[in-house]
Amino acid sequence: MYRSHTCGELRISDIGKKVMLCGWVKKVRKLGGMTFVDLRDRYGVTQLVFNLETQSELFDTVDKLGREFVIQIEGNVAERASKNPNISTGDIEINASSITILNESKVPPFTIEDNTDGGEELRMKYRYLDIRREPIKKNLELRHKLAIETRKFLSEKSFLEVETPILIKSTPEGARDFVVPSRMNQGQFYALPQSPQSFKQLLMVAGIDRYFQIVKCFRDEDLRADRQPEFTQIDCEMSFVQQEDVLNIFEEMIKYLFKTEKNISLDFNFPRMPYEIAMRNYGSDKPDVRFDMKFNDITSIAKNRDFVVFNDSEIILAIVAKSCSEYSRKELDSLTEFVKKPQIGAKGLVYVKYNTDGTFKSSIDKFYTQEDFKTWADKCEAEPGDLMLILSGETAHTRKALCELRLEMGERLGLRNPEIFAPLWVVDFPLLEWDEETQRYYAMHHPFTSPKQEDLDLLISDPSKVRANAYDLVINGVELGGGSIRIHNKYLQNQLFRILGFTEEEAQKQFGFLMGAFEFGAPPHGGIAFGFDRLCAMFGGQESIREFIAFPKNNKGRDLMADSPSEISEAQLDELCLVIKLPK
Fold first, then answer.
1. What would the pLDDT profile of 10-44 be if each residue is shown by its tens digit?
2. Can you give the three-state secondary structure of 484-535, one letter per residue?
């Protein structure tokens, strides 16, 4: 037996017990003839005391101790004279009678403390050390608890957890596939699943009725703080349901997780917001509605003057920052530089201060009168003391840029309180997106999404106006989950394939196994998938999902710890009949 107790277990009631502990040396403090050691394991920290004046035989061993040495000690639990209220074992200490060094350690490349001096890249390279830190350990514990509670909720709702294949067929649409060469079928490739979409639909045809899986998915796309090349979904599907059925049960699941894990009661019906309204009012299909600051379209009242920028714009949009008319020139210049960042791409920013005396001050004073600005203020419902911020240009680009400015203002004004959660369902997405470059339609979600019944006639007359039975759950500007009611009718599915530009042969080649299943009685069905990593980050109050993944990859998709991806040997390439052709 290496240990009788963990380092987070002993309390004042254990005084007098003889115990054996194991763990990592967190800190060593030498005070004359006394040496104090903080010993850490997964469960906590316990202070050890070595009296080297009375235990001279331990001196040589204790004197060797360094940070992250693995040791085993034996001793008696005693009441601590100088108690530490910040740790659960702070009332006691161990008067050590023996010590064994189980393994020495090099000096760690960063301090293994809550507030470490290690940068993200360094911590990712030595992730096994980073996980020893309390914040990362707590994040992984949170992830574990959320997974357990998710499985518990869905199991009690008669969902059956079923595993689906990882090596599947590559299909078009969505992000790029990660592909895997097959040695046994030379010249052919598997793909890693972007989601288990086809398979969960097949499970509905198979009569499973309610399926779920906490599953790894893979997408070869550009990365950011809330994306990884491999990520985890809570993937769900149900038979004999309509959109409202899916929204109700998974709204209940989210409420259950908030209550069990954060003790927060979301005791209200989540609002439903049509996609068109979300884009018009917030410029985003995942709006942060913790604060107002909606878009105001002032195109009709701001055009046709001498200001060429507005006259040449397709749309002119304004937001109102309450009680900000005292913003300094420096602060306004800072906002202008913000919207001109390459990732936002606005050419400039127009401001109008609605002074408390009822007058207006603007960056475009010479083009507009005080009466003009008053008309704008009335349209925007601005009041004296407010600040109007205005962008103009092509509609989609201007909405996107103003969305970023709105979020930035919300941040600067303290309106994005992380302790407030504002969920909503975004519904009625367009079924299709037109791509000018390829001159064809693409599915906005995926090609199995069902159109709304009332829009079916538009599939022939005007496909761009067809709305989908699709929905996203958004909380605080983060898309946590999305799904749709699926097409279960083979004739409608074939019609959509034709609109998407698939020939009958191409559709059969790519999706023949699913279409074949539809020949044998497919039930009406629909589902949803939640980004489990994003859910963990939201519950943990952080933006980066990497902090909740045991071994994450960086923004270039590299595992810095294992140094992958990496080259493979010529023998492996020959076995797979592959030749590497690098770009020139």
1. 999 999 999 999 999 999 999 988 999 999 999 99
2. EEECCCHHHHHHHHHHCCCCHHHHHHHHHHHHHHHHHCCCCEEEEEEEHHHH
Cα separation of the two ends of the chain: 61
- SS3 string, 152-183, reads HHHHHCCCEECCCCCCECCCCCCCECCEEECC
Count, residues in the chain: 584
Residue with tokens 């995926």: 446
**Alpha-carbon gap, residue 135 to 499, rounded angstroms:** 50
Sign of CA dihedral 282, 285, 288, 291: positive
3-state percent breakdown (helix, strand, coil) of the chain, nearest 5: 30, 25, 40
In 322-459, at which residue ranges do the beta strands (DSSP E only) sit?
A: 350-354, 360-362, 387-393, 423-427, 432-435, 440-443
Instruction: Return the bridge partners of 20, or none.
Output: 74
The pair of structure tokens assigned to 154 is: 């869905």
DSSP string, 430-449: BSEEEETTTTEEEESS-TTB
Task: Give me the residues paired with residue 526 across strands.
Answer: 238, 485
CA 496-502-507 angle, 5° bins: 90
The angle formed by the CA atoms of residues 64, 67 and 70, to the nearest 5 degrees, is 75
10 Å Cβ neighbour count for 564? 10
β 360-362/440-443 pair status: unpaired
Distance CA 301, CA 299 (A): 6
Q: How far is CA 198 from the centre of its chain?
A: 24
pLDDT digits (tens, 9 = 90+) for 46-85: 999 999 888 899 999 999 999 999 999 999 999 999 999 9
Whether residue 267 contacts residue 259, with contact meaning beta carbons closer than 8 Å, is answered with: no
CA distances to 177, 470, 580 from 583, in Å: 19, 39, 10
Q: Is 33 helix (H, G, I), strand (E, B) or coil?
A: coil
Please tell me the pTM assigned to this model: 0.93
CB neighbour class for 121 (10 Å; exposed up to 12, middle 13-18, buried from 19): exposed
Classify residue 480 by its DSSP letter. E
Nearest Cα neighbor of 91 from 101, 79, 99, 75 is 79
**Using CA atoms, how far apart are residues 94 and 17, in angstroms rounded to an integer?**
10
Distance CA 491, CA 37 (A): 73
Contact 372, 388 (CB under 8 A): no
pLDDT digits (tens, 9 = 90+) for 424-482: 999 999 999 988 888 889 898 888 999 999 999 999 999 999 999 999 999 999 999 99
Q: Is the peptide bond before 109 cis (omega within 30 degrees of 0)?
A: no
Do the beta carbons of residue 78 and residue 15 sit within 8 Å? yes
